[in-house]
């Protein structure tokens, strides 16, 4: 829209200039003012004879020469600051030049208006960048079978070396199978490294396919590769401890995946 309006305005100005330059031939220059008068009308319109402006609209040679002087004036104005007092008097003394300036001002105003409107129009949101935001954590199903353990009432069992179970170092949705005889209820689960608790959570055990099982989500990717103690404790003091080793390898660990 903006581009079309600018093209139409340029065509109108070009047509008007071409029309006045050719529509009123006066080869004998009858009644034409002098070159000095035309130059004065272009450069110092406040001092020019108003009758000369009317003559320019009906004499193509004078109009062409007047446009030449205006082009010369424009060149000078580009090289130095304009004489503002004279510019302010142009609408009364030089209507043609003032009209050209007015059209230019209108074009600039309309262009600025459309630029503001365009900036105010809501733009659709940009699509999210691939890889810039972390996706949802995917928990892999994993079964940790503790049925080989014997519940005790002490956190340590001396004289008994337990085998270490490998766990994949990744987010796991763990099913912890408790020893035979365990009861349904609330259990406290903990993951410890050298006696320091790095994770703990309270969950409830249910009977699933004749096995008392705990369900818990544990993101092991947050912890470094090392040997840990996975501990299960009940409110009445029963205690289970299973040494586990976090592994970066994708090989099948000693635990059992579903």
Q: Provide the helix percentage.
A: 25-40%
Strand-residue fraction? 25-35%
H/E topology pattern: HHHHHHEEEEEEEE
Give the CA-CA distance, first to last residue.
64 Å
Widest sheet: strand ordering: 1-3-6-5-4-7-8-2
Overall number of strands: 8
Shape: rod-shaped
List the uncertain runs: 101-108, 113-118
Task: Summarize model confidence as the mean pLDDT.
Answer: 76
How many separate domains? 2
Rg value:
46 Å
- Structural class, by secondary structure, is alpha+beta
The biggest sheet amounts to: 8 strands, mixed
Please count the helical segments.
6
Model description:
This protein is of the alpha+beta class and 258 residues long. The protein folds into two domains: 2-120, no CATH class; 140-247, Immunoglobulin-like (Sandwich). The protein is 36% helix and 25% strand. It is built from six helices and eight strands. An eight-stranded mixed β-sheet has the order 1-3-6-5-4-7-8-2, with no helix packed on it. A hairpin with a 4-residue loop joins strand 7 (227-234) and strand 8 (239-247). The chain is rod-shaped and about 125 Å long. It starts with a helix and ends in an 11-residue tail after the last strand. Mean pLDDT is 76; it is low at 101-108 and 113-118.
């Amino acid at each position: 829209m903006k581009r079309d309006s600018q093209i139409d305005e340029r065509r109108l100005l070009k047509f008007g200039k071409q029309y006045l330059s050719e529509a009123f031939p006066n080869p004998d220059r009858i009644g034409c003012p002098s070159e000095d008068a035309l130059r004065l009308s272009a450069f110092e319109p406040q001092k020019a004879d108003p009758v000369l402006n009317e003559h320019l609209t009906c004499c193509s040679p004078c109009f062409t020469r007047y446009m030449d002087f205006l082009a010369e004036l424009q060149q000078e104005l580009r090289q130095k600051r304009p004489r503002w007092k004279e510019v302010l008097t142009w609408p009364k003394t030089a209507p043609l030049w003032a009209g050209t300036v007015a059209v230019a001002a209108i074009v600039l105003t309309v262009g600025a208006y459309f630029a503001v409107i365009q900036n105010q129009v809501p733009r659709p949101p940009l699509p999210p960048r691939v890889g810039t935001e972390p996706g949802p954590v995917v928990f892999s199903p994993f079964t940790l079978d503790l049925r080989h353990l014997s519940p005790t009432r002490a956190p340590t069992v001396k004289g008994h070396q337990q085998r270490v179970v490998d766990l994949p170092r990744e987010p796991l949705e763990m099913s912890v199978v408790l020893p035979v005889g365990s009861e349904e209820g609330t259990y406290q689960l903990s993951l410890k490294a050298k006696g320091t608790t790095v994770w703990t959570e309270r969950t409830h055990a249910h009977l699933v396919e004749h096995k008392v099982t705990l369900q818990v989500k544990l993101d092991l990717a947050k912890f470094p590769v090392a040997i840990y103690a996975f501990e299960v404790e009940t409110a009445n003091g029963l205690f289970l401890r299973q040494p586990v080793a976090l592994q970066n390898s994708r090989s099948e660990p000693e635990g059992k995946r579903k």
